[in-house]
Amino acid sequence: MGMLGVVGFTVVAWLPPDARHSPTVTDAVTGAAHTPSASSTSRAPKPNGTEESRIAIPRHGPGTYVTAPGVSAVVGRGKAFRYTVEVENGIDVSPAKAAEEVERILADPRGWTADGHSAFRRVSSGPADLHIRIATPDTVDTICLRHGLDTGGEYNCSADGDVMVNLKRWVLATPVYAKDVPSYRALIINHEVGHFLGHGHVTCPGKGKPAPAMMQQIKGMLGCVPNVWPYDAEGRLITGPAAP
Fold it and tell me: Percentage of the chain surpassing pLDDT 90?
């Protein structure tokens, strides 16, 4: 499917705000066949990555959300995009804790604020440019399909100011990141917010190099090593050739 904001090998073209909402769908799970069920329960690391807790992953949800309360400071430079963090009712994810994670990710100096013109502020009421929603697979499928995107119970998507995070990915990550779920959550947010900002998919720049955040890493690392950040510690963009 087409996307705006094609990323080159060493530079990223900045797009104006009205070009930042191209529908995108990412992170398909490949390999073993998937049989949908009414619900499942899986073990996943807590945010510190050292303990486990049982978190139910229901297939279905009501399609309504709880918005994390409070506001954050502005991070980055330029006019801030206002965003909410929302969790579908009935799932075992704390909206407040999810909001804390998203805030940390977007405030990290290796994140999108390193581009010099992106800024973010979390809000809980009033108008918002971006809604980051953690939801059950069926709810993600329903919302994404409205934008012509088939998420198949496994994908995340970004379209028209909605970042739909599949609960399965938030809890279980992917095989590469299964032992470091918090890092994979950072990849989800950076990848999908990157689409919101107008960036398209790229591929691995070379064997042994860090995988770009805009690479569909779940489909194979292609010789790259895991990385979840758009920029490195020196402020250099981590990218690769535009994906076919």
Answer: 75
pLDDT one-digit tens code per residue, 143-170: 999 999 889 999 899 999 999 999 999 9
Q: What is the pLDDT of residues 70-112, one digit of tens each?
A: 999 999 999 999 999 999 999 999 999 999 999 999 999 999 9
The answer to whether residue 236 sits within a structural domain is no
Residue 213 is assigned to a structural domain of this protein: no
Q: Buried b vs exposed e over 136-151: b needs ≥16 C-beta within 10 Å? A: bbbbbbebbeebebeb
Q: Look at residue 147 and tell me if it is in a domain.
A: yes
d(CA 49, CA 51): 6
Max CA-CA distance within the chain?
46
Number of domains in the chain: 1
pTM here? 0.81
Identify whether 203 is part of a domain. Answer: no
Q: Whole domain around residue 37: which residue ranges?
A: 21-193
In this model, does residue 173 exceed pLDDT 80? yes
